[in-house]
Amino acid sequence: MSNNNVSYNEQVSLESGVDAAQENSSIPASVSGGLFSADYKKNEDLKEMLESNKDSQKLEAMKRIVGLIAKGKNASELFPAVVKNVASKNIELKKLVYVYLVRYAEEQQDLALLSISTFQRALKDPNQLIRASALRVLSSIRVPIIVPIMMLSIKEASTDLSPYVRKTAAHAIQKLYSLDPDQKEHLIEVIEKLLKDKSTLVAGSVVMAFEEVCPERIDLIHKNYRKLCNLLVDVEEWGQVVIIHMLTRYARTQFVSPWREDAVFDENSEKAFYDSEEERKVEQVKPYIMDPDHRLLLRNTKPLFQSRNTAVVMAVSQLYWHLAPKHELNIITKSLVRLLRSHREVQFIVLQNIATMSIQRKGMFEPFMKSFYVRSTDATHIKILKLEILTNLANEANISTILREFQTYVKSQDKAFAAATIQAIGRCATDISEVTDTCLNGLVLLLSNRDETVVAESVVVIKKLLQTQPSQHSDIIKHMAKLFDNITVSMARASILWLMGEYCEHVPKIAPDVLRKMAKTFTSEEDIVKLQTVNLAAKLYLTNSKQTKLLTQYILNLGKYDQNYDIRDRTRFIRQLIVPNEKSGALSKYARRILMAPKPAPVLQSAFKDRDRFQLGTLSHTLNSQAIGYLELSDWPAVAPDQSVRIVEVVEPVKETGAPVHGKSKPGKSSEKFYSDSEEEEEEEEEGSSSEDSSSSSEESESESESEENSDDSNKSSSSQSDSEKKKKTLKNKKLQQQKPDGKDRKQKNGNAVKGESRSESESASESSSSESSSESGSELDSDSDSDSGTDQKKNTRSKPVQSTLVTKVEKKEVSLLDLDDFSPAAVPSPKSSILSPSLLSDLQGLSISPTQSALQASSPVFVPETSHELLHRMTGKGLSAQYRFTRQPCIYGNSMVSLQLTLSNSSDQALENIHISEKSSTGQNIHRFNAIERLEPQASVTVSMGVDFNDSTQAANFQLCTKEDEFSVSIQPAVGELLLPITVSEADFSKEQGKLLGMNESSATITMTPENVSSQSVNRKVVSVANLGVIPSSQENIHRFAGKTVSSGCLVLVSVALKDPDAVITINTERTVMGSMLLRQLKTALTNSDP
Amino acid sequence: MIHSLFLVNASGDIFLEKHWKSVVSRSVCDYFFEALERATEPENVPPVIPTPHHFLINVLRHRIYFVAVIQSEVPPLFVIEFLHRVVDTFQDYFGVCTEAAIKDNVVVVYELLEEMLDNGFPLATESNILKELIKPPTILRTVVNTITGSTNVGEQLPTGQLSVVPWRRTGVKYTNNEAYFDVVEEIDAIIDKSGSTITAEIQGVIDACVKLTGMPDLTLSFMNPRLLDDVSFHPCVRFKRWEAERILSFIPPDGNFRLLSYHVSSQNLVAIPVYVKHNISFREGSSQGRFELTLGPKQTMGKAVESVLVSSQLPRGVLNASLSPSQGTYTFDPVTKLLSWDVGKINPQKLPSLKGSVSLQTGASKPDENPTINIQFKIQQLAISGLKVNRLDMYGEKYKPFKGIKYMTKAGKFQVRT
């Protein structure tokens, strides 16, 4: 069907005439007459317009052509004229030409080839929008000859710097696949590559391509599983739907069932009232430990229940339905019920899914029963679905309410609905034995209804009910016989007669009487009634021939001369069958068995009973038949496949330095800050380092923290586990130091969170919009910091570094406190936004966007000193005291600034107002001031962040710190080590760069090391505490290398320490010789000092 | 995913088609027309129609059917939600979404559809991204374009497309910075014959109109956030912040948007602001029926009930109605049997009533059921659930915005059974 051409007549004739039209214009006119020639003329002037030199003329022509396409008219003979304009400069014209090309290229393949070179050129355009749209059109024109070109372009675009172009490439994959399925293998390679992409923009599209091209290659997902889970919240909504469906399938193949092992899914319908306690008990007996990855998926999808997109909510609901432990299912209910407020079509789909769910688990939706009450304004199919659900929800407790509601429905003017209600009543009656009689009586009353459908339906339902237990209900049959005279609807009369006949043994006295009455009115009855009368007569004759023989003969005689041939026919047949005579064959012996055969009782059950064989939320489920391309949801595996396949190797070179690795592995977490807040992020970061920290006890921490741990952390803990033992020690040591400042920061943030209103939120948010990258992630530290530090909590964290296991525990507690558990950072280097301060932008460009990694990468600091320096003493500051410290994070205010954290405390007994930095003050340095603090209460303190551009000199920054009343001159004197930012380079690059910075750019000194300083970790520690440098992994044990760049100018600063027992040579290579020598002096002091 | 889209008007003509993959013949719509014929009401067309080779998923909005053609398995809600987005976008661009508006702007429609889907998969559905790609038509721009030959089509990739705040573009500037929030609550209720409430729920939304310069970061807090039982957010709202503190913290999109929709927990009793006294009766054998309605306010917290509109679908056997309203006007459509009474404001001193008789078709039997009465009303300055916004703060920008919050209560699906 995909190559279906236009098939409406007029156009086909027109189209067939196209080629000819170019040679001989008289032919088409003769082919299709007047109407066509008018069209033809019109197209002729469009052609003229397209050939003019004015863009506006061409544009007008193209707009009219698009109008034709939209109406479904054929404009294909304009192809040559249109395709010429493909290279137009006018962007709107070009777009319209693209629209045209995509529509007709398939039909005019040769001519379409003319445009290909234009697209190939455009694929190299510096503007990403143009590159992307060129690829879009190129892949959309469905001309098989260009498959190789497409393949090439897709491959190229999949490594494009712009995530937007890569997204387009992911879309192109599907198009190429549908054009030429032979390319599958190559396309899978591209998909594999794109799956690794960390951009949220690409994720949805590539998973879509995966689903279309190679859904069976589940192995491609393993390595990306955790990433996808973490990215999910930030992916655009359509991508979320696709990813969730894919992950549902994935999880079904990879994890073991969280449901009780002895109960298969379907069997749960009997024990509909699950209570979570029971569940828990069972779990105690058979401990089931959920795979942390399974939990990760559930946790990360949970916030999506709140999405405004109904498709997303439905997708998450089905994910929970198919994957979550039973006792967690209740979360689905509210969200689905909420969707019922949406459009009619949405209601329809949601109700269908609820219907399927409610069969298996009544308890879930029972509290919301009233939401399914029918309104007279609902569309019929909605009403019927609601009815279905209400019936499913019925139980002993609520049946009276439901039946009362049904009574209203039965009277509805919508007769199809009324009939459905009667059937529903019938189902309730069979399901709940307590109300069977009530229902039957109610239904009998309905027999006197005037509406034919209602009566017919009631009789049918009564008939069904009676068939299941006829013996107990002879009185109902009697009652129906009594009502018989009043019932006018022929269908109902016929049904009653059938019932009489069928159960004549239960009503031996009444049945003949009914027959007598019928014999009286036979001639005036409707046809179906007559037929049933004949039937009744026959049955009575067989069972009670003594009383009814004459009656039967009379009726058969009447029937014999009836106008209707059916009745004559039936009469003749019955007579032969029941009345014994010499001619009758063997058949009459079996008359009784033929007529009185026990008929199977019809089963009353929901139409949604077996719907659950399809995955909820799918088209197949809606239609209750398998649609093309439906992917079966597999059963849970009995034994979980290897979990380790999902572990992602951390490729960063700096494995041994805890913090940088750490920061790196979650690049772009800031992008997800839209949902989280920075405090949590900080938390995560901390948590990560602590779980790493406890790598010696990592097994324990892993299992314990299954709910908190994010994927990256667990990777790391396992990877560091595999690291050599001695490294671990180094690590640990280092981490102990890091913990302190980290912890403190976080505390401040917690305080912040509690205080709520402080200015910092605005900042964290504005900065959160600024997205991405590892080095960035640190910066929220500063931005956030004008909060009060919660003093009591501080103690708590201080104790942390003491023991690693303890840390983990503390961590855990806090985590639950902040309700972190459904959140973990996403590893997204999300694309840059222009909200980002422009200076930072250029800096980050290389980091996050390009898949080809640049040699130099900024990394987060290895060590952040905790020491703060006094800025203003409380005595001189009249109660206001200020301390600053260097956070060593890239500054968010400008990338040539050093970020500082200022803690202001009020030790006076009055509140200080309007604390700010004076505008006029600064001495040449560019200072980013913190926003004025409106009021600082006595004994309170607040932490704010600011940025200072020291311009790579250690000259002090002087400025005025002002309160409402006073001004204090203060100055900040940076140590040379604080003017650096750490970077990571490979060892080879380090040597290369070092080679370029020789001669006067190199300064070195030999020192004598004290014995306790010789160990590698103490050297590392000393160097990074003096200067903000990154540690470069070294292959030689006695040489330690560090790299950084100056904050303002970005010059490289390379430090190497070569140990030659007992001496050590410190070498510093940098263009900034002054800084080099100052740094050298400080390092010398630090390394010769013996104190720890 | 979505193969093609056909737009069908009320009279069953296809007036626009768009294909994202190979062309699908419009004859596929015959299956749709069949279903349309079978349906008694326009709303009764099933949303999903299977055909031998395709699946048709349709939505009905503004009396236009948007019929999407699908070839393989896809979550149906995905398509339905998308189609509704398309309608919303058209409405946003052209003010109304009618056949005429779509035909007049067919080029913009085509450009939009081209941007919204690529190969059947949604590409850009955020209105601010689309507006940067394709500028909405205005009279002024049309004039300028015809003179200067400039276009409606943006040349750069919209900034939002790549940012982490795709819903907001950068460089927004206003001279008057203002942020308005409308808290609108709707009461869905079914009242039975005797006037007791069978079911009543409150659903609310907060619609915002934010025109603020730069990149403001807003927080909105409630006096009583516990009232909100189930919420769904615009993607801009930080979910964690809500979870932890019950505060809405967000960088708003530019212009109009729906910030939040919520459901008020069912534990709270819902105040029903109006009552109806009715006496509708048909006698067996008589061709006349009595019809009396009286409306009155209750539990309105002292606010006036306005814009009251009563409508009722009378039984099919009714021929005509001769009624006299004490205020407002009423109409009765003898074809659709729809009675509607535009009451206006309810005056508690003089309750509005509608009295008179209805005539039945001769020979028609007495209707089984009395008609259901649907009521619409509005109450200004009241959120019936008692929800109150505590404060709205802005961070990240220096200016002082003008802030406004409005409350309103409306009837949602408010039905009285008689």
From TrEMBL, chain A:
Source domain of life: Eukaryota
Residue ranges with Acidic residues bias: 677-690, 699-712, 779-789
Family annotation (Pfam families): Adaptin_N (PF01602), AP3B1_C (PF14796), AP3B1_C_2 (PF24080)
Domain AP-3 complex subunit beta C-terminal: residue ranges: 810-955
UniProt region (Disordered), positions on chain: 657-807
InterPro entries xref list: AP3_beta (IPR026740), AP3B1/2_C (IPR056314), AP3B_C (IPR029390), AP_beta (IPR026739), ARM-like (IPR011989), ARM-type_fold (IPR016024), B-adaptin_app_sub_C (IPR015151), Clathrin/coatomer_adapt-like_N (IPR002553)
Bias type Basic residues, positions: 727-737
Keywords: Cytoplasmic vesicle, Golgi apparatus, Membrane, Phosphoprotein, Protein transport, Transport
Bias (Low complexity) ranges: 763-778
Main localization (coarse): membrane
Beta-adaptin appendage C-terminal subdomain domain: residues covered: 979-1088
GO biological process: intracellular protein transport; vesicle-mediated transport
Coiled coil: none
Membrane topology, as annotated: Peripheral membrane protein
A GO term from the CC aspect: AP-3 adaptor complex
Entry's localization field: Cytoplasmic vesicle, Clathrin-coated vesicle membrane; Golgi apparatus
Family: Belongs to the adaptor complexes large subunit family.
Function of the protein: Subunit of non-clathrin- and clathrin-associated adaptor protein complex 3 (AP-3) that plays a role in protein sorting in the late-Golgi/trans-Golgi network (TGN) and/or endosomes. The AP complexes mediate both the recruitment of clathrin to membranes and the recognition of sorting signals within the cytosolic tails of transmembrane cargo molecules. AP-3 appears to be involved in the sorting of a subset of transmembrane proteins targeted to lysosomes and lysosome-related organelles.
Protein known as: AP-3 complex subunit beta
TrEMBL record, chain B:
GO CC terms, sorted: clathrin adaptor complex; cytoplasmic vesicle membrane; Golgi apparatus
Membrane topology: Peripheral membrane protein
Entry keyword annotation includes Transport: yes
BP-aspect Gene Ontology terms: intracellular protein transport; vesicle-mediated transport
Location, primary (coarse class): Golgi
Keywords, alphabetical: Cytoplasmic vesicle, Golgi apparatus, Membrane, Protein transport, Transport
Residue ranges of domain MHD in the record: 176-417
UniProt subcellular location: Golgi apparatus; Cytoplasmic vesicle membrane
Pfam families: Adap_comp_sub (PF00928), Clat_adaptor_s (PF01217)
SUPFAM superfamilies: Second domain of Mu2 adaptin subunit (ap50) of ap2 adaptor, SNARE-like
InterPro entries documented for this protein: Adaptor_comp_med_subunit, AP2_Mu_C_sf, AP_mu_sigma_su, Clathrin_mu, Clathrin_mu_CS, Longin-like_dom_sf, MHD
Assigned protein family: Belongs to the adaptor complexes medium subunit family.
Record's protein name: AP-3 complex subunit mu-2
Annotated source species: Carassius auratus (Goldfish)
